[in-house]
Amino acid sequence: MIKKIAKTFRKNYPKNKKYFRNVCNIDILPSSLNQKNKRLNTLYKNIHQEIIDQCREGSQKAQFQLYKLYYKAMFNVSLRIVNDQMEAEDVIQEAFLSAFKKIDTYKGEVSFGAWLKRIVVNRSLDCLKKRKVQFEAINERTTEIAESRMDTRELDARVLKQSIQELSDGYRVVLSLYLIEGYDHEEISQILGISNSASRTQLLRAKNKLREILKGKEIFSYN
């Protein structure tokens, strides 16, 4: 069921409503999702190789083709991080320019989409830093935070999306990187420059805060 939630996120919330249960019980997602992503990266990493090679040769037509292929997905990645459409648009333009300038450094070790997404994520985080967003500094000891049990009701994916957007930047970024983009804690710690335990604790706090928001909307009720 959780995989369906992640799939819904990646499809940018289609018009037809879908309902899910157990939205916040997401601990099992990343390991299985990351393994699937790695298999897909290996399988599809050369799917646009001809266009990529043409981009290396400076073909503007090929660059435009690549832009059209990846624009929507990369825009959604940035939007989930910066939470502002105009800023996300600026980030995407900068990210594609950067990608085309250093496309020779792409060695095909991962899919082109994964390589490009990392550039988009980094640019999006740079945008947040301009707002002086500080990711919470946490001790190496992982803080234990009790998670209250909740009764779940059917939840519209749009409500979940809106609730995630209400999180603070720090919480929203970690939750998005982990749940939606499929990064594990080691990768998140490298991206954000925080410890592995800090990533785990930040995610736990983000999930608890999301529960509070959903409870306020009477989506969940505590036992």
Automatic annotation (TrEMBL):
Database matches in InterPro entries: RNA_pol_sigma-70-like (IPR039425), RNA_pol_sigma-70_dom (IPR014284), RNA_pol_sigma70_ECF_CS (IPR000838), RNA_pol_sigma70_r2 (IPR007627), RNA_pol_sigma70_r4_t2 (IPR013249), RNA_pol_sigma_r2 (IPR013325), RNA_pol_sigma_r3/r4-like (IPR013324), WH-like_DNA-bd_sf (IPR036388)
Keyword Transmembrane helix attached: no
Domain RNA polymerase sigma-70 region: 66-132
A UniProt-annotated Pfam family: Sigma70_r2
Domain RNA polymerase sigma factor 70 region 4 type positions: 160-210
Superkingdom, taxonomy of origin: Bacteria
The UniProt record lists the keyword Ribonucleoprotein: no
Sorted UniProt keywords: DNA-binding, Sigma factor, Transcription, Transcription regulation
A GO term, aspect molecular function: DNA binding
BP GO annotations: DNA-templated transcription initiation
Family stated for the protein in its record: Belongs to the sigma-70 factor family. ECF subfamily.
The protein, known as: RNA polymerase sigma factor
